[in-house]
Design brief:
Distance between the termini: 12 Å
Structural class: alpha/beta
Helix content: 10-25%
Radius of gyration: 17 Å
CATH topology: Metallo-beta-lactamase, Chain A
Strand content: 25-35%
Largest sheet: 7 strands, mixed
Strand order of the largest sheet: 6-7-8-9-10-11-12
CATH architecture: 4-Layer Sandwich
Length: about 240
């Protein structure tokens, strides 16, 4: 099982969990034609799409999949929280604070319902995916083999006079919060950590990777999701 990054960031998010016969699309924020190219136009292997929230950089292209009959799990619009797509079992969990408030927001300041996913596949084990929130209150411990998680910005890298400062601070994971989540879920069973949705202006790829490596066991491989990279997320990769 391979995790492929098609896009990660405000310009469009999309990741593929792919083996020889199946592909689960995580987020629909880039044109469908890019996914077709990444799959050598073998779109018949796509078993479904999962989207975290309604913003265009995460779900703006969902309609393209629905138009050709590919199922799309959108827990922010649907009552479904558990789905079986091919060999994948997907459970959606709310990314709310301890008071039950969604931390991501819309352009008008209203709450934007956002969900994370716990994904299981026999060839992969389990993966947690979470993004666009300020904290993750859920704990998975030894029940997670792979983590795909936002590390959007570092507090000390933000210009205090930046016009978009409030937007960055609201509804995105700061590096230390991401590291706390990694430490809380670190175990000998954790095989890979992939940091995603890094801010172009308020992050440092090398620093973020180095800090994440310190937060997990030495045997856990850490990567940053950049367009074109692939991470081996097989249950027994080596």
């Amino acid at each position: 099982m391979i995790l492929k990054c098609i896009g990660s960031g405000s310009s469009g998010n999309c990741y593929l969990l792919e083996n020889d016969t199946e592909c689960l699309v995580i987020e629909a924020g880039v044109p469908f034609k890019e996914i077709k190219k990444a799959l050598n136009f073998n779109i018949s292997k796509i078993v479904g799409v999962i989207c975290t929230h309604s913003h265009a950089d995460h779900s703006g292209r969902a309609y393209e999949y629905e138009a050709v009959g590919i199922p799309v799990l959108k827990p922010y619009e649907q009552t479904t929280r558990l789905a079986y797509l091919g060999g994948f079992e997907i459970t959606a969990f709310d990314l709310t604070d301890r008071q039950g408030r969604f931390m991501h927001s819309n352009s008008d300041g209203s709450e934007c319902p956002c969900y994370g996913f716990y994904i299981i596949h026999p060839e992969m084990g389990s993966m947690v995916y979470a993004t666009d929130c300020e904290l993750i209150k859920w704990r998975f411990g030894s029940n997670v083999n792979h983590i795909l998680v936002e590390a959007n910005y570092a507090a000390d890298l933000i210009d205090p006079d930046a016009a978009n400062r409030a937007h960055v601070l609201t509804g995105h994971l700061e590096l230390q919060t991401t590291l706390d989540f990694l430490r809380a879920n670190n175990s000998p069973e954790l095989r890979t950590v992939t940091l995603c949705h890094l801010s172009e202006c308020n992050s440092d790829e090398i620093r973020f990777m180095t800090e994440a490596e310190k937060a997990v066991d030495p045997g856990c491989r850490v990567a940053v999701a950049k367009k074109g990279i692939s991470v081996d997320v097989s249950l027994v990769p080596f």
